[in-house]
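Sequence of Acryloyl-CoA reductase (Nocardia stercoris).
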Amino acid sequence: MQFWAMVAREAGDDVVLAREKVGDDFLGTGTVTIKVHYSSANYKDGLAVTRGGGVVREYPIVPGIDLSGEVVESQDPQFAPGDLVIAHGYDIGVAHHGGYAEYARVPAGWVVKLDGLTPRDAATLGTAGFTAAMSVAALLDHGLTPEAGPVLVTGATGGVGTVAVDLLAGLGFEVVASTGKSDAGDLLTELGASRVIGRLPEDPDAKLRPLGKAVWAGAVDSVGGTSLAWVLSAVKYGGAVAASGLTGGAAVPTTVLPFILRGVSLLGIDSVQFPIARRRALWTRLGADLKPRHLDRLANEAPVTEVAAVLRDIHSGKHSGRTVLRVAGAF
Ligand SMILES: NC(=O)c1ccc[n+]([C@@H]2O[C@H](COP(=O)([O-])OP(=O)(O)OC[C@H]3O[C@@H](n4cnc5c(N)ncnc54)[C@H](OP(=O)(O)O)[C@@H]3O)[C@@H](O)[C@H]2O)c1
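Predicted 3D structure, token representation.
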């Protein structure tokens, strides 16, 4: 079988992403073959096409950590031709050929049948939206309710951030969105934010203390770094922070005080190895009670052949919302 793909290859000190006609060796191993309709652009996809990005095990690879579409062949009884599915996480797009190709083959244990979402909706959410949903579900499981007070979302214009704002506002929370983009107010307000603030600390001369004024009932943080330390210092007694990312850095300069004096919980969010049964259950909720209200507003669409420019925007922090990449018919 021959098909089109965007292939990332090492070239000197660089990684080059180019359109290529490839064969079965670019399908990957697995029992379910999928005609890819859509993929998406995530922060991690940007790292996959960056020299020293640290996420790809071996080049050449078809990047794309999300893929949605239609099953065309299955050796596993759980799936049949025509099923609409999404697969993301595990090794997809980093150690197993991913979604930037007309076809992909993956193990059945990585595949989620879609219920209440089209392949385009599912790819619009993709890994970033799923991570937002995991974060919100973790806060709800922790016992967070709208009556507890405002919930902060950092990196609010990002993929995780925009979907988190939408989901939390839809559940009735007062959402405060923290962003570095001065022109993002309209987008974030339309998604449901009650208030938009700058990146943390808002006052660049402020001194970070382990405990500050207790303001947030909870937070969804995909920024990490010093920003996360500021968030932790301002969480109310018994509150929780769902932490998933590191766009602001990996080192968090905090102390144990928020945990031992205010009973604050830091909830770790990992979408990559999240077990398939729980993954399928959360996707079902994303098509039902947790369905985001503004998917069309936060989605930009581009053909997958133009993904390099989108990933450059993500890498330089210029990107907002989610870019869903059209794969079928795009080559
Ligand atoms: N744990 C998991 O399973 C998981 C899954 C998905 C993503 N992630 C991680 O979560 C993070 C966000 O992913 P994403 O796909 O949402 O990325 P994204 O769409 O690129 O959004 C990241 C956002 O972070 C903010 N930001 C960028 N540079 C920053 C800086 N230097 N300091 C503070 N804020 C900065 C920006 O928001 P503003 O301009 O609005 O401030 C940006 O829009 C990444 O670190 C990613 O690796 C983890």
